[in-house]
Structures are given as structure tokens and as C-alpha cells.
Input
Amino acid sequence: MTVITKQAPTGEPQLNYASIEPLLWENGLASAPVRLHCNELPFDIPQAIKQQIAEKMVHLAWNRYPDFYNNELTALLAKHNNVHPDQVVLGNGSSQLIQQMVGCFAKFMSVAIIEKPTFTFYHQVCDNEQLAYREWELTCDGTHDLSTFPQLAEPALIILTSPNNPTGTTLPLTSLQVLLDKHPESIFIVDEAYGEFGGDSAQILIGQYPNLLVLKTLSKGYGMPGIRFGYALGGKSVIQLLKKHTVPFTVNIFTELIVREFLTNPAFALALQQNRERVKNLRDFVCFLLSDLAVNGAFTVHTSAANFLLLRFQDATLLDQIRTSLASRNILVSYPIPLCMRLTIGNEAQMNQVVRLIKQAVNARVTSIDPA
Output
């Protein structure tokens, strides 16, 4: 069966996704799960670049420990972010750095402030470190209302995410500055795991606020969760304190090589940027399509600055129907909040399939309510 049915205006073949769809399923079930639940990029690094890096790995000294301080890589990242190397700490993914940060600051702080909703790992780490936490509840549309920020009687560890997971909304820098000015004795962590997809970075504030840490990762916007690499930026004094809690040899030689290649190979960086822009365009288009389906008020779609969309349902029966339809086709999505579905942006064919299934469920629900 051919799937190329007509010529695009440029003269290149244009894919007919309706024809592709049957190729994706066998007996109604995908041969492998469609991973739209972990906020991964659907597009991998080009094979040619992988091969170039793999050939360089052969020449590394596998029998030697990595540089304990990762001095070369730290210097490259500092230059990339226009900061001093003493303002950078590296980690094995942002999750390891979150563990390191909470473990460090729990030694002299007795409470943390965490958004609600947010990445659930923060709660887990605080529990592990026996650090009590209070929640700053976001509004129904995912925005930050400063008037509801918890009152503090003592310095706290304040963990914020922008863009937020799972809402996809961002914290305005003006609001962050209000909090930083009001709580100069507290430590602020701004997790920007999805920052490459949208929103303003708090990085521009680290020179002004010595109590601010900005957390970065290559897992989301750069599409490399498999290599496990993240880093934090901040003032020299708070970074120095954080480095005292660094586990030896956190970053292995293979990860270091890949990150170094990303920072020095323009073709590599361009490929990652193109993947990211492709996802952002798909996100905005899918948001438009789903918002058009939501005109009857059965659900709403959050405008997102991340690589996922959050759908909030007013009709629980419709959500159950969509959940069943997706599960029957082995399409994995997330349900992080009651009556909500978080949909990672996949490739074009996957998004076409998901939108069509949601449309079918919406139409079926409308018919069942009003048969006439």
C-alpha cells in the first residue's frame, strides 16, 4: 500500500497520514507502546552524528577514572551560558542534582515550598531527606498567584518549575523577583527542564540574587535523556556549597564526550535545535486542533510552553472513553491530576492518530447525550 498520494507545493512528496495509520497497528494494537507519557522527544540524534561520536569513544581511556571536577566540560558549559566556571555544577541528569540540592539544604533548613501540581520527584526527595514541605497551589489555569504564596516564618527551600510540569505554564520573571526580594534568606531552585520550549530563563537573575539556583538538563529540549546529564547555575558561594555534596565521578567519560560534542559541533547543535522546533510547531498545531474540539466545554487545553499539553476535563465520562480508546491501541499518556490528561508531543503520525481518536470520542459522547 502506498502512502504518498500527492505532491506538496515544493514538489516534494506529501504524506497521507490516514494511509499511514493502518501500518502502525496490528489487530488494533501497536506492535510497541507509543510513548506519549514521559515527555521525551520523538526524534533521535541523526545516525551519522551518533557514528562520529561512537568512533571517538573507541579512543577514550576506559580504564581510567573521569576527571573528578570535569574541568574541561565545566568551562565549556560556563562559556555556553556566559557565566564563570565557578558558577556551574554538573550532574547525572537533573534528578540527581535535585537529590543533591535537597540533601544539601535540608542540613540547615526545616521546610520546603513546592508548587501544586508539580513534578512528584520533589515530594519523594523531601520525604527521603525528612524535609517537611508546604505547597503553593497554582490557579485552575496553571498560573502563579503571589497572594496565595505560603507565609514563611523562617528561611525555606523554595522549589519552582518553569515551564511547569504538568501544566506547561511559566512563572513570570517579575513574579520570581518579587519572591526573591521578599525572601532573601531562602534558597530558590528554578527547574527549567523544559525551558528550551518556551518562557524566559531565570538565568539572567543569578548575578543579582546569590540565593538563586537555575537547574538545566539535556533530557527534554535537547532530546538526550539516555545520556543522563544536567547542570545547575548560580552564584559562586551557593555553587561552592553545593559542590561539597557532589558524589565523586558523577559524569562518566561517554556522557562527557557527547555533551562536549554538542557544545563544539555546530551540526550536532543544529540537529537538536531542528528537532526541538519541529516539536514546538507540532505542539502549537495540536493545541489548535484540540482547542477546536473543546468548544462544547467538555474539556479545556492549557496553552503550553513545554513539549506536552494538559487537557482538563469537565466531562469525566469523556475522559474515560478517551483513556480506553488510547489504551486499546497501546498509546501511553499520563494522568497526573484528577480529570486531567497530559499528552507528550510525538511525531506527526502519532499526533494525527491521537487527535482523530479524541475527535471520535467527542463525537460519540455528543451523540450519546443528544441522539437527535
